Amino acid sequence: MGGCYHKPLFLGFSTFLQLSMVLSVLFTAACYANPKMEAALGEGAWGACPQLNIEGLKVSSFPLLLRVKHLELDVSCLLSSGKQGSATFEPAQWQAPVKQLFTQLLSIPVAFNGSRIEVEQLTIKHSKQILVEGKLKLSQQDQQWQLSLSETQGSQIELSVAAQAQTMQLSGQLAPLLLNTLAQHFDQVWLADERLAKLQFSIAANFANDLLVNANLKLPSLAATLDAQLSGWENWQLAASHSGFSIDEIALPAADWQFEQHKWQLNVSEWQLIGEGRWQLQPELVINGRLNSEDLIALQQHFYSLPKLANLLSAAAELQFTWKNKQLNGELKAQNINALWGELRFDGGELTSEFKFQPQLGWQHSGVFTLAQWDIGIPLSQLALNWQQTEFAPLAQWQSIMMRNIGFKVLGGEARVAQLALALPNVANLELEKVQLAELVKLYPELGLTMQGSVSGNLPVHFAEQGIAIAEGRLAVEEPRGHIALTHQSLVAIKAQHPSLDFALSLLEDFDYETLAAEVDFAEDGQLDMQVKLIGRNQQVSPRLVTLNYRHQENIYQLLRSLRIGEQLSGQLQQWIDDTSSSP
C-alpha cells in the first residue's frame, strides 16, 4: 500500500453505500496513480452521530476537491449526550476527544495535501430547529486546516488547526439574529441581550502538552473587552479580566476574576472590593460567597443615590450571598459609617441587613441600624432601630419601609418610638423618659440658670412633606421634687426695669418645685410654643406654695443652628470630617 490509507464510510444501506464506494475508489487512485477523476452523487445520508444529509456532491482530483450543494447536519445526538455529561465545567472530559482528533488528522495520507471542501449551503439543525445556515469552506495544506463559515444572518467564523503542533485558532463575529436563535432554542435568555450584538471573539488554544487557551472578546455596544486564559486539563484554572463599561446607566470598573473547580475570586481595585466563593452549573446555576470593601463610597455612588443633603464620609462592609432559583439572598454587614446630612453629623454607624432580590420584582429587606452619635446641635447618642420591607420593590421606593423600636439617648434621658412608617403623611408617638433638666439648661448658658430634676412625657410627631410638627405634646417632672436657681448678673437690673416681675424672679432665685408640667406644640417651620406650669416655694420669699405659669416661644431650628455654628467656628466639625473621611 506504500503507506496509503483509506477507510470507506459506513452508510447503512445500498443507496448511501454508493458514496462510500466512489470515495474509496477515488482515494485509492489518488494514492497510487494521481489520475484526474471526477464523480458525483445526487443525494446521500449518514445515519450515525451526527446525522448527515448530502445533496449535489461532486468530487474531483487531484488535489482532492469536494463540492456540496447542500449539507445538512443534525446535531441533536451531540447536544443530548452533552446534557447527560458532567454536572459542571470539566475540561478533562474533552481531553481524549481532542487528542483523538489530532491523531486522526495526522493519519491522513500526504497524498491528500491541498484538498478542499466547499459547501454552498450548510444547515445545522437540532431536531427540527435550524440553528445555523451559511456557506462553508474547508482546506488542508501541509497538515494545516483552514475552515471558514459565512452565516446567512451575518456571522463570520474562521478556524485554523495545526495538526503537528496541536494548536487551534478560532475567531469571528456573531450576529444578533444568530444569538437570538440560540437563546430561544436553548432557553438562555442572556444570549439575546442586545448588548451582545456583533460580539467579536478570538481564541488561541495549544494542546501539545497541557491545555492552554487564550481568549479575547470584544463587545462593541458596551465598548468593553474581556481577556481570559484557561490552563490545565486537570485542576484547571481560568483567569479573566474585563475593561470598565457602562450597563443600564451604571458605570462598572475594570475587574479581575479567578475561577477553578467550584471556586471563584474577584478583585475590583477601583472599588477596593474583593470577593470569593463557590459556584456550580448543574443541576442548576448556584453562586455563593462573600464580598468585602473597606470603602463603600465608590459603590454607593454607583449603585444608590443618597438624598441631596446626604454625604457619606466613610463605611466598610461585608456581603454574604447566594444566587439560586433565580433569586439572590444574602446578608450585609456595614460598620464605621460616618456621614453628614447638611451640617448634621452621624458618627459610628453600624448596619446588619438580610435581603432578597428577584430581577423582575426588586428587593425585600430587613435589618438593624445603630448609630453612636447623631449631632443635631443637641447630641443624640446610642441610636438604634429595626426596619422591614415585606414587599418586593426597587430600592428607591423606600416609602414601603416600616421602622420599629427606635430609641436613642438625649440630654441624659431616653427617647423611644415604637413604630414609624416612612410613607408620608404619618404620625408617630415619641416617648421621652428622664430627660435631665440640668442638661437642658446647658443649652442656654447666657441665662445663668441651673435646674435639677428630670421630665418624661409623650410628643405626637406628625411627618409630612412640609416637615415635622408636634401637636398637644405633654411633658412633666417624673421625680417628686426639683430645684431652680436663677443667678444671672443682670437680674437686679431687670427687676428695677420691670417691677411687676420682681416677685416671680425673686422666687426663681432659689425655687424648690413640686410640680413641673408643660404642653408642647411645634410647627413645621421650627417654631416651638411651650406652656409651662410650676408649683413650689422659695422659703426666703414665701413659705406658701406658689403657682407660676410661663410661656416659652422659640424657633428650635435657629437654636440648633446657632449651636452648630458655634461648633463650626471652633473648628470641631471640620476636624471631625477630616478624621472620619476615607476619601481625600
Describe the structure in your own words.
The structure is a single chain. With 584 residues, the protein is α+β, with helices and mostly antiparallel strands. It has 10 helices and 33 strands. The strands form 2 sheets. The chain has a 31-stranded mixed β-sheet that branches. A hairpin with a 2-residue loop joins strand 15 and strand 16. The longest helix has 19 residues. The two termini are 81 Å apart. The N terminus is likely disordered.
Distance between the termini: 81 Å
Measured on Cα atoms, how large is the radius of gyration?
A: 40 Å
Major sheet attributes: 31 strands, mixed
The count of β-strands is 33
How do you describe this structure in short?
By secondary structure, this protein is an alpha+beta fold. 17% of the residues lie in helices and 54% in strands. The model is unreliable at 1-35 and 81-87 (pLDDT under 50).
Keywords:
single chain; 584 residues; alpha+beta; 31-stranded mixed beta sheet; two-stranded antiparallel ribbon; 10 helices; 33 strands; 17% helix
Topology:
Layout: H1 14-32, E1 37-46, E2 51-61, E3 65-74, H2 76-83, H3 95-106, E4 116-126, E5 129-141, E6 144-151, E7 156-162, E8 167-174, H4 176-186, E9 199-206, E10 212-219, E11 224-231, E12 237-242, E13 245-247, E14 250-252, E15 255-260, E16 263-268, E17 273-280, E18 286-293, H5 297-303, E19 310-324, E20 327-341, E21 344-358, E22 362-375, E23 379-393, E24 402-410, E25 413-421, E26 426-436, H6 437-441, E27 449-452, E28 454-464, E29 467-477, E30 482-486, H7 491-497, H8 502-508, E31 511-522, E32 527-538, E33 542-555, H9 556-569, H10 572-580
Parallel strand pairs: 3-4
Antiparallel strand pairs: 1-2, 2-3, 4-5, 5-6, 6-7, 7-8, 8-9, 9-10, 10-11, 11-12, 12-15, 13-14, 15-16, 16-17, 17-18, 18-19, 19-20, 20-21, 21-22, 22-23, 23-24, 24-25, 25-26, 26-28, 27-30, 28-29, 29-31, 30-31, 31-32, 32-33
